[in-house]
Write a structure and sequence with these properties.
MetI-like fold, single chain
Length: 274
């Protein structure tokens, strides 16, 4: 009953949570939802317009666009969540180390963060992805290398604030080990804020991954991925606009849903924040 009451009192959160779960379900059950094999090329049906046979048309190789968009949900969402998890863990860990130990550790980590933020993020990510080679794993590494600084700065500021509390001083005086203080007192008091930040970043990270794939530094054919589909469809934008319209709509819908879900979570946990 408490759960139902909570969902009823937070209607915006409930709506976007259900939409996010629906998107996740599409990714999980793609093999059963997709009407055709996304890899099945029928050259005789190349660039078929949307109709009864192919609801969203076909691409240059005669592959069903609807099936590829559905399967693209799986790769796009999975890699986005992996990316958010990586920058969350790395950034938070480095921020905790910088804030708690201070001194040379803090100086080194923050100077590296300053150096990373001095370059345009996407440009630096493109350079790193170009050096590593074009694939989704390297794209995740490239974006992680330029995106962890936000979490590190936030974690550091929270640790510095938490360290001023009397119970931290009491733990130090009683001889509690540093690792125990971080695990028992620091992390529990900051995990909520860090988690909300991660939730609001899902949409942004999906856009950045799609951007790298569109530019040729992310996913590589033949696996379906929305940014890659946009890249493949731009050549036929005048002849077959559906090749870019449907993947583009998919990206917009998913980004909006997760952005609104993140905002709803933030409003629930911090109602005083404007």
């Amino acid at each position: 009953m408490k759960v139902l009451r909570f969902l009823k009192n937070n209607k915006q959160f409930t709506v976007f949570l259900l939409l996010a779960l629906a998107i996740a379900a599409i990714a999980v059950f793609a093999p059963w939802i997709a009407p055709r094999d996304p890899y099945d090329a029928v050259m005789s049906d190349s660039l078929k317009e949307p109709g009864s046979t192919y609801v969203w048309g076909t691409d240059k190789l005669g592959r069903d666009v609807l099936s590829r968009v559905i399967y693209g949900t799986r790769s796009s969402l999975t890699m986005t969540l992996c990316l958010v998890a990586v920058i969350f863990v790395v950034g938070t860990a480095l921020g905790i180390l910088a804030g708690y130990f201070g001194g040379a550790v803090d100086a080194v980590i923050m100077r590296i963060a300053d150096m990373m933020t001095s370059f345009p993020g996407l440009v630096l990510a493109i350079a790193i992805a170009g050096l590593l080679g074009p694939n989704m794993v390297n794209a995740v590494i490239a974006i992680s290398a330029v995106s962890w600084t936000k979490y590190a700065r936030l974690a550091r500021s929270m640790v510095l604030k938490i360290k001023q509390n009397l119970y931290i001083e009491a733990a130090v005086v009683t001889g509690t080990k540093r690792g125990s203080i971080i695990i028992k007192y620091e992390i529990p008091n900051m995990i909520t804020t860090m988690g909300v930040t991660a939730a609001t970043d899902i949409g942004t990270m999906m856009l950045e991954l799609a951007s790298l794939s569109f530019l040729g530094f992310g996913a590589q054919a033949p696996p379906p991925e929305w940014g890659l589909m946009l890249n493949e469809g731009r050549t036929y934008i005048s002849k077959a606009p559906w090749l870019m319209i449907y993947p583009g709509i998919a990206i917009v819908v998913v980004v909006v849903v997760f952005n609104m879900l993140g905002d709803s979570i933030r409003d629930i946990l911090d109602p005083k924040q404007e």
